[in-house]
Fold each of these.
Amino acid sequence: MERVADLTVNNLASQLEDTSTKPGQDQINSRIFMTSFPGKVTVYLGKRDFIDHLEEVDPIDGVIVVENEYLKGRKVFGQIITTYRYGREEDEVMGVKFSKEMIVDRGQIVPSTNEKPELTVIQEKLLKKLGPNAYPFTFHFPSGAPSSVTLQPGDEDTGKPLGVEHAIKTFVGDSIDEKGHKRSSVALAIKKLQYAPPSRGRRLPSSLVSKGFTFSQGKINLEVTLDREIYYHGEKVAATIVVNNTSRKSVKNIKCYVVQHCEVTMVNSQFSRYVASLETREGCPVTPGAAFTKTFYLVPLASSNKDRRGIALDGHLKDDDVNLASSTLIGEGKCPSEAMGIVISYSLRVKLSCGTLGGELQTDVPFKLMNPDPLLADKDKTNALKKSKSIDRARYENSCYATDDDDNIVFEDFARLRLNEPDE
Amino acid sequence: MELVEFINATGPRFMAQRFIEEQHMLGWNIPPEHADLVHIHWRNYPAPDNVWHFVMAAVYFILMLLSTSGNGIVIYLFMTTKSLKTPSNLFIFNQALLDLCMMVNMPMLVVNSFYQRVIGWETGCDIYGLFGSISGFGSAMNNAVIAYDRYRTIAFPIDGRLSMGKAFILMCFVWFWALPFSLSPMKSVDLFGKYVPEGFLTTCSFDYLTDDDHTRYFVATIFVWAYVIPLLLIVFFYVQLLGHVRGHERMLKEQAKKMNVKSLVGNQDKEKSAEIRIAKVAILIFCLFLISWTPYATIALTGCFGNRNVITPMFGMLPAVAAKIVSCIDPWIYAINHPRFRAELAKRCPCLITDEKSSSDAQSTGTHATAATEETVS
């Protein structure tokens, strides 16, 4: 089976090489993701990451190739499936199932129900290359659909990781309500992500707290200020700490943490994990009457939290780079409690230890940790934003999956996503 | 006239007379030095026929084989499979241990049945009673602990699982729960209660017939300790568990509705009845507990506080048999229908689980295999 798949890829690749050498072609470098049911059904997608811009989510645009002889008058249907997995498979006792699949969008692809579909650049290109048996399709995530998030499994965990996943599945059949037959269904994992908004915000998040003591006068004041509201993954979080001690106690040490808060809405549970931390005695003890100011730097990284169970990561497909889950953005006018799936937020926590009797003084400063929109990173391109077609074009140019050779389309075979179906 | 004589000679009265002449009363074969063992109540009944002893021995022999193989498999799989050594499975392993404890009594009964009395007199009776009680009290509490563990895992799937350390402490707790009132009736300890032969005088259990306050307190205590408390805990945890499952389902439906979802995959058939499916399993476990211990509770309470004339030797034997049958069923309910245990067993000796493949094939989608196996139980 696998071998056949390889052949298909090679054939296509060679076909494409022929066409790509023709002069006068668009010089757009793009990587195409494909998966196939060998020789019969092949799905092509221009990208796997679909970005939620809050007002709208990137449409899931692609092309499917089916042999007419194979179809024999049957139809091809597509579905976008969102899977919630909120408990380990090995814990499924008493007939409980900790995963739920939802078809968030679906439709008929072949024969096309839409006479004149609006095609995206990539669809046009693919249709041109793949010939008469290619059909375009476009699906949409509903507004507020949860982002792809994976909870990092622990050492002993087997089975699929917990989190929110999305996939596009196509199947051949006679009716849309039919359960796709294993033999004819093809599924590809895709991701829905959020990028940081264009403006990183001018407000510097800060928090001011103070602590008094029962049997003595005076207070310890703590002020924590961050240098940004939104950080990009991999950036240093700079926290300026100002301690002002007017009490008779002294501050023994200072602890800083980056806390990842993870709310699993499906089971109404939330938990927090430290993803970066430091402890220092610098400037300590802060004696009565003294003051202390210092900026500390913390870098929250997925790589420094490997193998820790329950750390939330951005949804990722096998070989991708992994980063910590991005903060969940909620559309304007929506209440945070309406957020779905797994909701992520971050805060910087500072703890001052005032000795065994003095207790602790603690404060949290919320911030956001996200990926920048690669499109907006380059200001020249922002002008092109107005036209939707140019958005796509720019995105492909920008995604810069530059390859050494001059092929303008590189096909990548995704391993066929197995839908829990045993191989026959 | 002749006819009347004939009827008299062969009729019921004659037969009854013959019966009494040949039949000993219960306890006839107990020598005077051990006469204290047998409560006067049992002496009112004729000794059961040899056939009955033989039937009991045969039943127990079969139960012994079932229990040893079932529980043995569970213990063997748990001990030898690394992936099965999870905190939750520790309780299932513990259940198998406790059930094996019960099994220890079975060969003793088979021997007792041939002698038609308890071998080893007081000591034999103490040993028999000790194993039975440890196993009984222990598995009652272990059932409650399993309910608690399942409640934690299912109600809080993300972070509810017990750690191995905590599970081990709970397992010890089960054994400590079982010990005090199992040891106290022993002759050598003789603190609270007493082990005596019951029914056919071939099995032993705590004394519920002696007409004094001491016995009544003891029966009341163990009734609460080994029946009421575990039962309440089991009901509490499974009810809570169902409440949480319902909450999860509602939450998911709400989110699906917000997203305008056209169809929840599989929602049509199996998924929809998740609550019902879990409820079925919970009720099954609850019923097994009832079957296992209600006969003992009833008979002990009747013996103590009610009309003891209803407690015939035959009736007296029933609770012991019920408890032992359940101890043979337990491994099937908890382990062999557990998807992971099942898979491991199928891997090791495929001959034992031949129906596995066909049943999961019938379910067609591998995803629902878990559901399928549990469903066959209920």
Amino acid sequence: MTSQTQPAIRFENVSKYFGNVRAVEQANLEIRDGEFFSLLGPSGSGKTTCLRMIAGFETPSSGHIYLYGQDVSNLPPYERDVNTVFQDYALFPHMSVGDNIAYGLMVKGVPKPERIKRVDEMLELVQLAGYADRKPSQLSGGQRQRVALARALINHPKVLLLDEPLGALDLKLRQQMQVELKAIQKRVGITFIFVTHDQEEALTMSDRIAVFNEGKIVQVGTPAEIYEHPATAFVAGFVGTSNLVDGEIAKRITGRETRFSIRPEKIHMGPADTKIEADSYSADGVVRDVVYLGLYTRYLVELSGGGDLVVVEQNLKTTSMDVLKVKGQPVRLHWKKEHIREVGGS
Amino acid sequence: MPSNVSYGQKASWGLTLAAWGGLLFLHVPILIIFLYTLTPDETTYTFPLPGITFKWFGVALQRADLWRALTLSLQVAAVATIVALVLGTLAAAAVYRSQFFGREAVSFLLVLPIALPGIVTGIALRTTIGSLEIPFSYWTIVVGHATFCVVVVYNNVLARFRRMQGSQIEASMDLGANSFQTFRYVIFPNIATALLAGGMLAFALSFDEVIVTTFTAGQQTTLPIWIFSQLTRPRDRPVTNVVAMFVMLITFLPIFFAQKITAQSADTEGGSK
């Protein structure tokens, strides 16, 4: 089948304006068949608009969207082989769980016995067997989420869209659903496109991530690529935390004024007389602030020539008593030269 | 609800008295009408009743003019309600779903007929219909009634739309339903009770309307107008009382149920949150 070689979704110079407001500008993107792909960015960055254009709730102002090679830019939602899990689940309150899940089959005229069989399969898949006769109002948030997922998957769409589906759940449930979603995606083998503003969630679940900022796609890559090689200062700051160093301070450390980013966990902190290897950069300073966070401790070090760096160290051998003593002490920071990323503008 | 008493202080006896006085003032005259359906004395309101008789119910049943008026009123109310259901729902959907120039103005103009004194609506309609040289008929009454019936349906349905989760419509389309299917399976069940409540209210409004009807009717006599004309015939008084009692029941019941329905659906929607 040609669909195996075609990208699941391809954006070709897609822009979207709401009046004079630019929501998405000149987006180019390829999402591969069978991928778990995340659209990551702060709110208002254009990620949800992109998802809604794939679903067909919005049409691009210019450019084209291809679904397995077919131009779907102007097709209505009900003529696209794409289904959506909504942020607020959007379950039909007047229908039972079973009727909600069977809805897609019902409007297509699939006969009832077949519908019942497939609803049971879906309930099995999302671990809600026996819930078919309940009303959505009788379910917990996590269960409604599963019903929404089952309802969207029953049509066997080519692509499943998920619009921040875990946003309303508490932390424990969210982590459990992350694992489960990933497992379900593997089982059904459908391309999942997942919108989130939570960088940790995107890193945990995705095969690849597109990072959005102000209507533009700023970087596309695997979680490791995005984290280790942020393309811009924005990505470095949005995905995980980073120290950004530029100007005079950068020159004192690396000899060049080029702006670079360094992850707090890559920096080692030692006594002021620590010997520095040739493959490392170093900076001296004084510990100004210590935040004990259980698993690790975050230090704010004020550099002797101005500026400051955040350093994170795991509490492998230290206790809260030990780390708090460091406050006010002179230290020498050092890190491998290969761990800095020179980054462009914003 | 006796439990309410424990919520706060007991009301002062003065306030209690005033409340009861107000209620009695509103409802005793209605009871008097009920009472005098049973009087054997046909011209005067003597108290206590000289006796009790049910013959006026029989007399009322025999009156052909009464039956014609009743049939006309029911027909007008039914047709005006149907027109209101269709137009009111469409208007509510338009105002809720789309942004268009003059949306607020349309919303205001739709609600205006119910705020406007009936006499103004009546004169306006009479002048318009007259100058267009349309003969006054059954249909002009229906049009007159529809102007204010549309409002109650529109208000009820719009309120329901605003409470409905908008993403349901998107979800339905997303799952492959076209516009018709989305209306049939998702929108209609969501607004069904609002339609029922709005429809009953519209029916009750139309059924006992006098002013607009006087201006838009030709030779036709609706039931309220028939009752009004009876005032000049003191000998028919007990018959009029019988009819008045039935009018009250016919209009009271729909309003009562309309309130029940909206209260119930408000409860369940609140409970699911």
